[in-house]
């Protein structure tokens, strides 16, 4: 596995075939600063080419996932008037978050979000780009931007993709708060757990499932899913058939078929260190 970058706002730890990323600014309920945004983007860029990492577990420290954007960064941007011919500091601040969340969304790793306490604004957006969202008993979701006189600019498109336009309108335009049960009903989260033990069990089970899925097939499947609705269906299916043929003839297809015939786990289900790093 690759050496991880030093981060001041994130705690990073390997666990077998997974990387655990913990948002670590508990004094502000893990609100997302520009530094945290930059560090998250750097980590996801670095692990993209690391085949030993097959999943990312993203969570917050000390009972909260993420309370949204850091107000101090907003105040700092306000004190920097846009110079003629330069981008507005608020634009740069907002767009940096959008670029990071898009990077997480397009990662070929399986991204598992473990959601507790406050999941607001930018934290809500991160939840929406996870492949699996597991919510604990204390979770509260919200899009508070309109109540603050601003808009969920970089988040809204990902929320619409996750739960649809109708429900996004209701949450964003009324500034509502919802609990884990309603989040599960809307399709925002996949599992709503009654206690912390159930949360940890759900994460463990998910990582075990990831281990049994071929890593390249998983990455190719995720890229294919992101293309749905953005390309003509005929050409998308043509290309998908080409990718299927390549997968069948490739090393993972050969190993998977052989393992099935021999009634044994495929090589990738046995790969990766079992210890924490």
Summarize this structure briefly.
The chain has 277 residues and is α/β, with parallel strands linked by helices.
Number of separate structural domains: 2
Largest sheet: 6 strands, mixed
Please give the alpha-carbon distance between the first and last residues: 10 Å
Supply the helix-strand structural class: alpha/beta
Q: Under the CATH scheme, which class of the largest domain?
A: Alpha Beta
Which fold name fills CATH's third level, the topology of the largest domain? Answer: 2-enoyl-CoA Hydratase, Chain A, domain 1
Assigned CATH architecture of the largest domain: Alpha-Beta Complex
Radius of gyration (CA) equals 20 Å
Q: Pick out the low-confidence regions.
A: 273-277
Mean pLDDT: 93
Question: How many helices in DSSP terms?
Answer: 11
Approximate helicity band: 40-55%
Order of helices and strands: EEHEHHEEHEEHHEHEHHHH
- State which percent range the strand residues make up: 5-15%
CATH homology superfamily name of the largest domain: 2-enoyl-CoA Hydratase, Chain A, domain 1
Q: Spatial order of the strands in the main sheet?
A: 1-2-3-4-6-9
Gross geometry: globular
């Amino acid at each position: 596995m690759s050496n991880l970058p030093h981060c001041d706002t994130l705690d990073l730890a390997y666990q077998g075939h997974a990387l655990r990323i913990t948002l670590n600014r508990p004094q502000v309920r893990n609100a997302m600063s520009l530094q945290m945004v930059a560090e998250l983007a750097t980590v996801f860029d670095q692990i993209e080419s690391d085949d030993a990492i097959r999943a990312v577990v993203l969570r917050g420290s000390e009972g909260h996932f993420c309370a949204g954007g850091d107000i101090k960064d907003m105040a700092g941007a306000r004190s920097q008037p846009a110079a003629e011919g330069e981008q507005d500091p608020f634009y740069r601040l907002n767009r940096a978050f959008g670029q990071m969340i898009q990077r997480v969304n397009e990662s070929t790793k399986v991204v598992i979000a473990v959601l507790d306490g406050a999941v607001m604004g930018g934290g809500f957006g991160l939840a929406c780009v996870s492949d699996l969202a597991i919510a604990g008993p204390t979770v509260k979701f919200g899009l508070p931007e309109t109540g603050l006189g601003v808009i969920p600019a970089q988040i809204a498109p990902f929320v619409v993709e996750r739960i649809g336009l109708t429900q996004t309108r209701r949450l964003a335009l009324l500034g509502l708060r919802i609990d884990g049960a309603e989040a599960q009903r809307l399709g925002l989260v996949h599992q709503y757990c009654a206690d912390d033990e159930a949360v940890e069990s759900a994460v463990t089970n998910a990582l075990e499932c990831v281990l049994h899925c071929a890593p390249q097939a998983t990455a190719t499947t995720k890229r294919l899913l992101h293309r749905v609705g953005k390309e003509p269906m005929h050409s998308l299916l043509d290309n998908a058939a080409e990718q299927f043929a390549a997968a069948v003839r490739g090393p993972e297809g050969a190993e998977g078929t052989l393992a099935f015939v021999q009634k044994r786990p495929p090589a990738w289900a046995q790969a990766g260190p079992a210890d924490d790093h």
